[in-house]
Amino acid sequence: MDLYPHKSGPMEPVALIGENISVLVEGGEKHFEVMYLEGIPETQIVDAAPVAGIVAGGTNVAAITNMGMRDLEIGQWRLYPIDDIICQIWAPQAMGRYITRAVMATLDIRAAVTDPCGHLSELFVYQNMFPFVTALNPMAAAITMARLRAHGFRYVVQELKSKPARSVHVVAQGWGFLREHTARR
Amino acid sequence: MGVVTLRGYVQHTTERVDIDTALVANAELLWTLGTTPNRSAIILKMVVFNATGGNDILHVGDTGVGIAFVERFPDLYLANGLNLFIADVNMPEYEFFNDIYVYADTVLANDIQVIATVAEIF
């Protein structure tokens, strides 16, 4: 299969019109057929700093509501900070993304060096289940901006009543329930 | 100790620091390293203006003021009333693992102004 999530290089959709996407969300997997597909050019998606800024060594949690999609839509996003902040990404709010057994990996401005195409931080958003970011200011001085930019694709989908023979599987919300999901398959 | 250059870094500029009192006990804080995670820094570019009314020597080091100060750069000669620009190949290469301080030997009148571009490595 040529299309799959977290593909390195310039961003590509994970499924074309007429193809299927299976989205893992809390409560199980949902299956969809892609009706329409649209690119989302790079956009400033959130400033995770409050008006008062983030004090030295401080954090702020912000909802990235601008990544929320309409009903029966799926967003595929690549997200990266442009300020000197260290980000933890949550989806849903209490479930960390980019996690291993012992650590929750963070996203910082160095991603521009280590992952220029952003494929490692690719995220999927199902309908309005937008992610949250905890932005940490690692500097010894307060910062007033904690900006993240993102680009991606928007899929307009229709739900399938049964699991299709062939689909691309993507994760839209944390991995904590994967074991249960796997057991059910 | 050498300087690691094949690492990603994030570039910041310092505030303008005014040295209006001479000697190491009055060293001025030029750059405070980030707190989380541990970071180091190299100075990429520095502009210094000597308005003290006499030639001077600028000392660049780290760790603190007074006896805590550890000089890291060779002494930088500051001609009276002129700017000193150093960058790229002219910049002494040292990786600071502590906050960066600067001080001058003599301040007759006015001050010495310092501003720098710092690359934090993490």
Instruction: Estimate the mean pLDDT confidence of chain B.
Output: 92
CATH class of chain B: Mainly Beta
Main beta sheet strand tally, sense and closure of chain A: 6 strands, mixed
How much helix is in the residues of chain A?
under 10%
Helix content of chain B: under 10%
What quaternary form is this?
Answer: heterodimer
What is the count of structural domains of chain B?
1
User: What gross morphology of chain A would you assign?
Assistant: elongated
Radius of gyration of chain B: 14 Å
Describe, in short, the structure shown.
The complex is a heterodimer of chains A (185) and B (122). By secondary structure, chain A is mostly beta strands.
Give structural attributes.
A: 4-stranded antiparallel β-sheet; 10 strands; B: 122 residues; mainly beta; Jelly Rolls; 5-stranded antiparallel β-sheet; globular
Secondary-structure map:
The complex is a heterodimer of chains A (185) and B (122).
Chain A: E1 20-25, E2 28-47, E3 59-63, E4 73-81, E5 86-90, E6 107-108, H1 111-114, E7 123-126, E8 132-136, E9 147-159, E10 168-171, H2 178-184
Parallel strand pairs in A: 1-10
Antiparallel strand pairs in A: 1-2, 2-9, 3-8, 4-7, 4-9, 5-6, 5-8
Chain B: E1 9-13, E2 17-19, E3 28-31, E4 40-50, E5 56-62, E6 70-71, E7 76-78, E8 83-87, E9 100-104, E10 112-121
3D structure, described in words:
The complex is a heterodimer of chains A (185) and B (122). By secondary structure, chain A is mainly β. Chain A contains 2 helices and 10 strands; from the N terminus they run E-E-E-E-E-E-H-E-E-E-E-H. Chain A has one domain (20-184). In chain A, a hairpin with a 2-residue loop joins strand 1 (20-25) and strand 2. The mean pLDDT of chain A is 91. With 122 residues, chain B is mainly beta. Chain B is globular, with a radius of gyration of 14 Å. At the A-B interface, helix 1 of A face loops of B.
